[in-house]
Amino acid sequence: MKKMKAVFSLILVIAMIGVFTGCSNNDDTNTTPSNQQQDNQQAQQPNNPQPNTPPANQGTNNLSGPVTISGSTSVEKVGVETAEEFMALNPNVVITYESIGSGGGITNGNERVTNIGATSRDLKSNEKEFGLVEKVIAYDGIAVITHPSNPVEGLTKEEVRKIYAGEITNWSEVGGKNESIMVVSREAGSGTRGAYEEIMNFELVSTATVAEGNGNVQSTVAGNPQAIGYVSFTYINDTIKPLNVDGYPPTVEDVLANRYTVARPFIYVYHEDNMNDAAKAYIEFVMGDGQKIVESLGGIPVN
């Protein structure tokens, strides 16, 4: 009997040890994955989380959709070049630029025909009433140009005014050859023409040759030894001859120093409620890294 009690007691002790051992194993099994999970979660979370928004000079696949711009032919080169760079950084964005003149660009921006209107002149008093956002993206000088064979190196503002008003009609009157002057001007509504006429203070002579767009003025003057015209700085090349005005050359440095005073702003205009995310990001790009493109094209950066 005593032997049976001893055996039973031994069996009971062994059973209890098994139970406690099993509980201990179960606890280890339950807690180990939890600790690993916490470690994994901590490993996946950086110490200093960064925002999802990319730097201004980088693109993002999050931007998509069309952005439409229309307006000044003078702003076109800056608009197209900055758009191409922005689209390269943001391949899901498509930006188009329609060259229709400053007046048309302001109208399209106001009437929401395009997201952005481009103008190369300040808005008139009645246009100010549209409530458009005006963003100056660059400054541009206007170069007075002749054919490369013309011996005249420079003119005063007063001489330019008299030529365009029809008061001076022969190159010999300003130190040139005894040849009649062919006056070439931009079309009505052109921002370049509006700025040029305002700066030079003249009413265009009725016999002037009117050419539409900077490119056409450039090519017209390049093809006529007696011609005089005016174009944006960005259209100066070796097919034409830019003249000094009041003794100073048409350069960025001289505009910034306020020595060459035939200059005007490049402006993007728009309504905030007509700007999608891509359009807003494009404007930010133009005002940031896009200023390097402005400078590379001969324009004057705003910062």
From TrEMBL:
Q: Does the keyword Transcription apply?
A: no
Q: Give the way it sits in the membrane.
A: Lipid-anchor
Outline the extent of the PBP domain. 58-288
The signal peptide, as residue positions, is 1-25
Region labeled Disordered — which residues?
27-71
The protein's UniProt keywords, in alphabetical order, are:
Lipoprotein, Palmitate, Phosphate transport, Signal, Transport
Question: What GO terms fall under cellular component here?
Answer: plasma membrane
Respond yes or no to whether keyword Transport is given for this record: yes
Subunit annotation: The complex is composed of two ATP-binding proteins (PstB), two transmembrane proteins (PstC and PstA) and a solute-binding protein (PstS).
Q: What does this protein do?
A: Part of the ABC transporter complex PstSACB involved in phosphate import.
Q: Which family does it belong to?
A: Belongs to the PstS family.
* Protein name, per record: Phosphate ABC transporter substrate-binding protein (PhoT family)
Q: Which organism is it from?
A: Natranaerovirga pectinivora
The beginning of the lineage is: Bacteria, Bacillati, Bacillota, Clostridia, Lachnospirales
